[in-house]
Amino acid sequence: MKKLLLLILMILIGFTCFAGSVYVMDSGKPDLVIWIAPYKSQADLCVYVAPYRSEARGKDEIWYFEKYRSSADIKIKITKYKSQADLKIYYVKYKSEAGWRKSHPWMGRLH
């Protein structure tokens, strides 16, 4: 029973550890591989980059880029190829334009 409870707890922690603070990795194993779409219509998620970390809390569509890996809630790697990506994003200029464009398995897991 204790093992089952521990397993459930670890799964729940895994789902809630993602947030809007992001660190871009050059090498290593990222939590998420993204492709930056040149057009909004190709993206799963439109992302607004916030100037402050507090703006990104609890929101999939608003990201804050961390300088240090240890400070980030999620580690991402950017790929050149659309087929290698877990998530396709498009950067927007305004917070009101940010949001999910399509239903996706990562929906609700980035905050």
Structure description:
- By secondary structure, this protein is of the alpha/beta class.
- It has one domain (2-100).
- The chain has helices at residues 2-16, 53-56, and strands at 21-24, 32-36, 45-49, 62-65, 74-78, 87-91, 99-100.
- The radius of gyration is 15 Å and the shape is globular.
- The chain starts with a helix and ends in an 11-residue tail after the last strand.
Question: What's a quick, concise take on this entry?
Answer:
This protein has helices at 2-16, 53-56, and strands at 21-24, 32-36, 45-49, 62-65, 74-78, 87-91, 99-100. It is an alpha/beta fold and 111 residues long.
Topology:
Layout: H1 2-16, E1 21-24, E2 32-36, E3 45-49, H2 53-56, E4 62-65, E5 74-78, E6 87-91, E7 99-100
Parallel strand pairs: 1-4, 1-5, 2-5, 2-6, 3-4, 3-6
Antiparallel strand pairs: 3-7
User: How big is the Rg?
Assistant: 15 Å
As a percent range, the share of helical residues equals 10-25%
Question: What is the first-to-last residue Cα distance?
Answer: 30 Å
Main sheet record: 6 strands, parallel, barrel
The tally of beta strands, per DSSP, is: 7
- Segments where pLDDT lies below 50 for 5+ residues? 11-18
Main sheet: strand order: 1-4-3-6-2-5
Q: How many helical stretches?
A: 2
Q: Strand percentage, roughly?
A: 25-35%
Categorize the overall geometry: globular
Structural class: alpha/beta
